[in-house]
Amino acid sequence: MFIPAIRSAALCVAGCLAVCGTAAAETLHAWEVSAGYTAMRDTNDHLTFKAGWSIATAVSINRWLALAVDLDRQTASVPTFDGGSFSFASRAALGGLRASGRIGVLKEFVQVLTGPVVAKGAVFGVTDTSHHTALQPGLGVDVALGRRWSARGQIDARFLDSGREARLGAGLVYRIR
């Protein structure tokens, strides 16, 4: 179920808020929501997940630091010799910190997220599900499209207890205030 993964990411963000203290909580001011396309490469199994999505949110702690949560899902299908296919999927609910800086219309960021990943594979009618913990450092850039809208590009490395993955993302960001 994906609900325990969401609960784990929410607990991670709540823990970060508790560590930041009440002084930082008074400066929380800017929320953002983003959504977009992701593609991921599993470097251990040499499998590319070409169909994926990501939904994320972040809340500023101060001018350069934010708490971030990222939910994503990637899928892949590999054709078999008999006309069927092997199907694979990966879901993650990650939370952590994002540091950013602005140069003109560009806003660069680096982030470190952690949380649960659920991987699923179906081969010849047999489905296997595995649960992992991920550490995902990444970097990206937002290009301002207006006062509230930005286009985002990012690259992440995901380190799992079972191996490594690389993820590319492109999407839109909306700043709520």
Kindly describe this structure.
With 177 residues, this protein is mainly beta. It has one domain (3-175): Porin (Beta Barrel), CATH 2.40.160.20. 14% of the residues lie in helices and 68% in strands. The chain is built from one helix and nine strands; from the N terminus they run H-E-E-E-E-E-E-E-E-E. It has one helix spanning 3-26, and strands spanning 31-42, 47-49, 51-60, 65-79, 85-103, 106-123, 126-144, 149-160, 163-175. The protein has an eight-stranded antiparallel barrel. A hairpin with a 4-residue loop joins strand 3 (51-60) and strand 4 (65-79). The longest helix has 24 residues, at 3-26. The two termini are 33 Å apart. The model is unreliable at 16-27 (pLDDT under 50).
Fraction of residues in helices? 10-25%
Spatial ordering of strands, largest sheet: 1-3-4-5-6-7-8-9
SSE run: HEEEEEEEEE
- Tally the helices: 1
Computed over alpha carbons, the radius of gyration is: 17 Å
Total count of domains:
1
CATH-defined topology: Porin
* Structural class by sheet pairing and helices: mainly beta
The shape is: elongated
The biggest sheet, with number of strands, parallel, antiparallel or mixed sense and barrel status, is: 8 strands, antiparallel, barrel
Instruction: Determine the oligomeric state from the structure.
Output: single chain
What is the CATH-assigned architecture?
A: Beta Barrel
Query: Which stretches are poorly predicted, pLDDT < 50 over at least 5 residues?
Result: 16-27
Strand content: over 45%
End-to-end separation: 33 Å
Mean pLDDT across all amino acids: 85
Q: Give the strand tally.
A: 9
| CATH domain class name | Mainly Beta
